[in-house]
């Protein structure tokens, strides 16, 4: 089903859309706008999915086990020591 709508474009947008039609990339201004809206819909859906995944990750991390600041500092120091040892081993 198609719906007729009246829209306003800036001069720049109109010029660009018409150039796409004139170059043969699209058959009409409607096609250009439909394609643009479809891309925007896909982008919006992808961003919503990404945001939902990030929220799930944060929720899992908040609900998961916590370690103290001192334990985290110790782990970081151990990681640094291992990196330094592996770096010096090749010398």
Automatic annotation (TrEMBL):
The lineage of its organism: Bacteria, Pseudomonadati, Pseudomonadota, Alphaproteobacteria, Rhodobacterales. This is Type II toxin-antitoxin system ParD family antitoxin. It holds the Pfam family ParD_antitoxin. It comes from Paracoccus marinaquae. InterPro entries: ParD (IPR022789).
């Amino acid at each position: 089903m198609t719906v007729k709508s009246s829209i306003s474009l800036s001069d720049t947008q109109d010029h660009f859309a018409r150039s796409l039609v004139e170059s043969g990339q699209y058959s009409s201004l409607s096609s250009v706008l439909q394609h643009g809206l479809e891309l925007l819909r896909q982008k919006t859906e992808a961003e919503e999915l990404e945001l939902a995944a990030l929220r799930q990750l944060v929720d899992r991390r908040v609900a998961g086990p916590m370690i103290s600041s001192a334990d985290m500092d110790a782990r970081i120091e151990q990681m640094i020591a291992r990196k330094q040892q592996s770096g010096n081993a090749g010398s």
